[in-house]
Amino acid sequence: MKKQLFFSCLIFLLSFSMLSFVIPKNIQKKVTKEINKTFEVEGFNLVEVLISEEVNKSLVRKIEKDKLFKIIANNELLGYAFVDKAPSKTDEFDYLILLDKDLIVAKTKVLIYREDYGGEIGSKRWLKQFIGKTSSDKLQYEKDIMAISGATISASSMTIAVNTFLQNLAILHQNKVL
User: Fold this and answer.
1) In angstroms, how far apart are the furthest CA atoms of the chain?
2) Would you tell me how many other CB atoms lie within 10 Å of the CB of residue 54?
3) Adjacent-strand bridge partners of 92
């Protein structure tokens, strides 16, 4: 009886932990749409980039499981996708960074914004500023990246998030993860 209860609890915990590391369906749909548009491809696979604990400790900010993926189509590397959250005034927003195979930012996208104000950071015009950036770029809000009136916290947060990812990109490349 105790063994059966133990195994039931173990299976439940394993199932729950596996589900917690999957991109939610509503975000997955948006990621798929952006990859299709950016890389002009219909069929592709997302393959998680595995980062050792040792390398992850050396990053500016640890990259959690199921956040960084290779984009593969027809057995060819198209680029990379990074999905994460960044803080806004009272909540968080989900964002996507797409890189080409040379590790250059091909697109950034705010996937889900949960505030009443500051949603302007989702505009294509503002997000275009990140396209073409590489791991050698150091971005500063209001200097390299335009400020947005009414979205100061979110715009600054997105700039910090992209900048941190670019710094991590250099470390991942140096450690031959990418």
Assistant:
1) 65
2) 8
3) 87
Non-local (6+) Cβ contacts of 59 within 8 A are 51, 168, 171, 172
Return the percentage of the chain with pLDDT > 90, whole number.
81
Q: Are 109 and 96 in contact (CB under 8 A)?
A: yes
Residues 103, 106, 73: CA angle, nearest 5 degrees: 75
Task: Please give the Cα distance from 2 to 144 (Å, whole number).
Answer: 61
The DSSP element (H or E) to which 82 belongs, if any, is strand 76-87
Per the structure block, which two tokens stand in for 67? 């956040």
Instruction: Using the predicted structure, report yes or no on whether residue 99 has a pLDDT greater than 50.
Output: yes
For 98-136, give the DSSP string: EEETTS-EEEEEEEE---SS-GGGG-HHHHGGGTT--TT
Model pLDDT, residue 22:
65
Tell me the C-alpha distance between 86 and 167, whole Å.
16
Average pLDDT over residues 61-78: 96
Angle at 172 between CA 132 and CA 164, to 5 degrees: 55
CA gap 164, 88 in Å, rounded = 16
